[in-house]
Design brief:
34% of the residues lie in helices and 13% in strands. The protein has 182 residues and is an alpha+beta fold. It has a five-stranded mixed β-sheet, sandwiched between helices. Helix 4 links the parallel strand 2 (93-96) and strand 3. The mean pLDDT is 82.
C-alpha cells in the first residue's frame, strides 16, 4: 500500500467482493470438454439407405448407347427441367465412371453425390459412357447410373448432357439444396 492511499480502500474492496468461503481443497476440478454431439442414429440410417439405393435393378431397362436419360421428381417445374436439359446450370463438379466395374462405380457415385451435397453443389455432371465397348450387353454403367440416381432422395432431376458435355454418355444431375446445419 502506498502511503498516500486511503486506508478505507481495503474495507471498500472487501465489501465489493462480498461473502467468501474457504476452499476445502487446493485441487481444481478439471473435466475434459464434452465432445460435440454426433447423430449416430442418423449416420446408421444413412448407411442403411445407401445399402438400399445401391441395389442393382432387377430388370434393367433395355438402353441403347444413343438413348437419352431423363428424370424429374414430382414438383420440378418444366422451366427448371428445360434449363437443366439446355445446360444452363453451372456444373460445380463432375465424376467420370469410365473403366470402373459396377461395384466400384456404385461406391464412387454414392461418395461423389454425398460429398457434392455436403459441399453445397446444386448441379453436377456424371460421365457414365455410352457403352460402346460393352458388346451385346448394351451400356451397363448408363443403365445402372439411371437406376441409382432415381433412388436418391437428394437427386431432384437428371438428363443426358449436351453433346459438348458428353451427350448421351453423361448426365447433368440437379441436387437438393443442403439443409442448414444446426
Amino acid at each position: 500500500m502506498n502511503s498516500g492511499d486511503d486506508p478505507n480502500d481495503f474495507e471498500e474492496f472487501l465489501r465489493a467482493v462480498g461473502e467468501v468461503r474457504r476452499v476445502q481443497s487446493d485441487r481444481a476440478e478439471v473435466r475434459p470438454p464434452r465432445p460435440s454431439p454426433r447423430a449416430t442414429k442418423r449416420q446408421e440410417d444413412e448407411a442403411a439407405a445407401h445399402a438400399d439405393w445401391l441395389s442393382d435393378p432387377i430388370g434393367a431397362a433395355d438402353l441403347q448407347p444413343g438413348d437419352e436419360l431423363r428424370f424429374a421428381r414430382p414438383g420440378i417445374s418444366q422451366r427448371v427441367f428445360r434449363k437443366l436439359r439446355g445446360g444452363h446450370y453451372r456444373i460445380q463438379d463432375e465424376l467420370d465412371l469410365h473403366g470402373l466395374f459396377a461395384d466400384e462405380a456404385r461406391r464412387a457415385l454414392g461418395g461423389f453425390l454425398d460429398l457434392a451435397r455436403d459441399e453445397g453443389s446444386l448441379c453436377v455432371r456424371v460421365i457414365h459412357g455410352k457403352g460402346l465397348r460393352s458388346r451385346q450387353q448394351g451400356p451397363v454403367l448408363k443403365g445402372l447410373t439411371d437406376h441409382w440416381l432415381r433412388q436418391r432422395d437428394d437427386v431432384l432431376a437428371f438428363c443426358s448432357a449436351l453433346p459438348a458435355d458428353g451427350g448421351t454418355g453423361a448426365v447433368y444431375v440437379l441436387l437438393k439444396r443442403p439443409r442448414a446445419r444446426r
